[in-house]
Amino acid sequence: MQKVWKILEEPPQSFFEEFPELSKTVAILLYHRNIKTQRQIDEFLNPDYSVDIHDPYLFKDMKKAVKRIFKAIDKKEKIIIYGDYDADGVSASVILVSTLRAMGYDNVDVFLPHRETDGYGLNTRAVEDLAKDGAKLIITCDCGISNTKEVDFANEKKVDVIITDHHTIPPTLPKAFAIIHPKIEDEPYPDKWLSGGGVAFKLMQALLIKHKEKNELLSNGEKHESHEKWLLDMVAISSVADMVPLIGESRTLTKYGLLVLNKTKRLGLQKLLLEARIVEQDGSMKRNLDTYTIGFQIAPRINAAGRINHANVAYNLMMAEKGTDAVDLAFELDQNNKERQTLTEELFKKSIEQIEKNQMNNPVLFVIGSGWPTGLVGLIAGKIKEKYYKPTLAMSDGEKEITGSGRSIEGFNIIETFQENPELFLKYGGHPMACGFTLANKEKLEDFKTYMISKYNEKTKDQDMNPTIKIDAEIKLTEVDWELFDLLENFKPFGIHNDRPKYLTRDLEIFDIKTVGKEAKHLKLTVKQDSKIRKTIGWSLCDTNGDINWCKLLKIGDKIDMVFEIDVNEWNGNRELQLTIVDLRKSS
């Protein structure tokens, strides 16, 4: 689908005059990211852990939650950390279990639901089993805010529930003992964009503050501050994997988390990085670990556990204390990931067949398969959404129910649409752009399809729904140099609400063209403008499953316009600037 190229306007002259110490390039990029005050600029360009991390007790229920946890410790009650089965939930669970054990409390266990048999969030069967096993306190991680019925059931069983979550708020809040959630109404906590792991981290900070009042060190001899900072790798993984906006406190936590990740002491992560060939056999890094490493290499492997097998594999890897255990678990995760890739590709092709058969004109797309792994439907929905740029619901038709996952596009809030007709669902949860759900019964499928299409048409009738690429500036190839690259480095870590800066340049002549990669899916162009020559890379631009196979459309001598990001290519100790193609067109 043809994308709209939108060059963002420069800031007014008054903005440049207000911050004369900023270079024009930096000022423009900050303005485009809605960073317009001195406080925001300082926090963004120079995140300071001692200044920009908020007091966890700003959460209105934090004091209550901490008091209940220490009561459980004093009475030796069994505590269950109930996490989600994705990278965010696993990271959050690791943070809390590690902290309670470091405080010397061992009567704590973790429960991660099985995606196929338990589904997302709390479920009554699991709560009942945990209660029978002696649990008196359940602390949720990255889930729970939509589980009103299940929390009521826990209360009946005399089990208190503390919810730590960050997902979309339902119309009725669960009657939990305490709720730590940055987005609930009247919540004074200033940062609203924490990941599930970030919220768990705030609870962990509050516990350490309370513990330190009477204890100079943790039970394992570690300083409280040291324990806190060594868990930042888990926060970085959770924030990037769950695609929360990397602004404000989340940005600061992620930036420092990446520093920890690059020197992690966690055995499981070390072995996972080795298995993924991110580090050499001697432990040396091939490149600094960044948000790309997490998003495309670490998080998919952690998520693969819950998609193919059980999230316990990923959790046990992150908690591993023996090298042999870490090696075996890292290998298992990598095998899960390879299986996930193969299965996803197979089901993606079947999904395309369904769509091309009778849905090409539909504004919302639906694909469904008998017995499709529920752990893969979200990936399928995401790939279809990217291919057709339409909201997509991918579903698995099981023996008793239909379970699915949705991915949306800018301008259509999918979870809000679900909330307007909850009778269609047995359960659901998620964010404006992504959701998970189980239909109330199989007979609701056609009603569900009709409803979603009707709501999409209603909500978007006055909007331009064409995909848009926001471009920071139009420049010449001569302006792409190491000075500009170094300026852009100040904007890392990149992520949601802080995309890599994008630039447009026109009338490039193709000097050389080739395909790269095992399946020749990637396009490598050498382009020339006036006397300047640059190398570029376009990922999957020659993929036969893509919208356009540019390798068949381009030839040496063609003139093209290109939207790109500025990156660096490193090999054998050499470094050169490289343009990563975002989109391109023939100049004609």
Automatic annotation (TrEMBL):
Instruction: Enumerate the spans annotated as DHHA1 domain.
Output: 363-453
Residues in DDH domain copies: 78-215
Tell me which residues make up the RecJ OB domain.
471-583
Q: Which GO terms describe its molecular function?
A: 5'-3' exonuclease activity; nucleic acid binding
Gene3D superfamilies cross-referenced by the UniProt entry: 3.10.310.30, 3.90.1640.30
Coiled-coil residue spans: none
A single GO BP:
DNA recombination
Keyword annotations of the record:
Exonuclease, Hydrolase, Nuclease
Looking up NCBIfam families in the UniProt record yields: recJ
Similarity field: Belongs to the RecJ family.
The name this protein carries in UniProt is Single-stranded-DNA-specific exonuclease RecJ
Q: Which organism is it from?
A: Candidatus Magasanikbacteria bacterium CG1_02_32_51
Print the organism lineage. Bacteria, Candidatus Magasanikiibacteriota
